[in-house]
Each structure stands twice: as structure tokens, then as C-alpha cells.
Design goal:
Layout: H1 3-32, H2 48-78, H3 83-94, H4 104-134, H5 139-151, H6 153-160
Helix pairs in contact: 1-2, 1-4, 1-5, 2-4, 2-6, 5-6
């Protein structure tokens, strides 16, 4: 198996999960009431209107991401392998100590699914940014508020009042 090529493709999949994490981390923080210590000076001077738009944008981004995940799972299954098999092949490419008996057909299905996932990832990233900007926020402002939300309990409280 061309493990090096697969590893490069798999790194792209991980970047999707980073975007997902950014889009949904405020929900996790709300549910877990986790507070991260401030690592640097963050902006916290946001209007109520900006925070309301942020809450709306985060919810929209999460919905887009969930739809995108479903499409990715379907892309895997469309190639004739299960998500579980895909994950096993993925694990084998990440950890050379994992002994995986991968057939050439499974490898081909995995590679084709990875190509489709990369395309879906790109489309999903664009859709998330569009969903954020459709609320009237720039992506940069969204990121600023997200950083503040992660680190400032007062911002968390103010945003949470707009969550539906």
C-alpha cells in the first residue's frame, strides 16, 4: 500500500475535523462548562448584536458540518466499504504497527473515498464560511468571538442567551 500517499490524504481529513471543532466548540464548552485559561490578550468588547449573529452563525455552521459529515459517510459507503472498514484502513495508515489485512479492492475504495472526502471537505469549508457571512459577520470577526467564547465566561454567558 502507498502509505505515504494515504497519510497525506488523511491529513486533509483531519483539517476538516479542526474546522468542525471550531464551528462546534462553543456547544461543547456550554455543555461541559469548561473554562480554558487565557493564553493571550483577547478581545471581549462585542456588541449584543455581534454576539447574537455569532450564536446564529455557529448554529448554522454546525448544521452545515453535520450535513457534510453525512455526505462524507455516504461517499465512503458508495465505494463499497463501511465506515468501520474505512476507519480501520485509516488507522493502519497512521500507525505502522497496526496489522491490517487490506485487499487491493479495499485500498482502491479507500483512495477513491478519500478523494471524494477531500472534495466534500472543500465544499463544506466554503459552505461554513458562507453560512457565517450570511449572518452579517465576517469570518475574522467570527473567529475573534469564538476565541473570546472559549476563554471568557462572561462572553459565554452572553452568547448562550442567544442559543436556541
Amino acid at each position: 500500500m502507498k502509505k505515504e500517499s494515504l497519510r497525506k490524504n488523511l491529513l486533509k481529513v483531519f483539517s476538516l475535523f479542526i474546522v468542525v471543532s471550531i464551528a462546534t466548540s462553543f456547544v461543547c464548552a456550554q455543555q461541559q462548562h469548561m473554562q480554558q485559561p487565557a493564553q493571550q490578550e483577547i478581545e471581549t468588547d462585542f456588541s449584543d448584536n455581534e454576539l447574537e449573529k455569532f450564536a446564529e452563525a455557529a448554529q448554522e455552521a454546525q448544521m452545515v458540518q453535520q450535513e457534510n459529515q453525512q455526505e462524507m459517510m455516504q461517499a465512503i459507503e458508495d465505494e463499497g466499504i463501511t465506515v468501520q472498514e474505512f476507519n480501520q484502513i485509516f488507522e493502519a495508515t497512521q500507525n505502522p504497527e497496526v496489522d491490517a489485512d487490506i485487499t487491493p479492492e479495499q485500498e482502491q475504495a479507500f483512495n477513491t473515498a478519500m478523494q471524494k472526502i477531500n472534495e466534500l471537505q472543500h465544499e463544506g469549508d466554503e459552505s461554513i464560511i458562507e453560512a457565517i457571512e450570511d449572518t452579517g459577520l465576517t469570518f475574522e470577526k467570527y473567529e475573534q468571538i469564538m476565541n473570546a467564547y472559549r476563554q471568557d465566561p462572561e462572553i459565554q454567558e452572553r452568547v448562550n442567551q442567544y442559543l436556541h
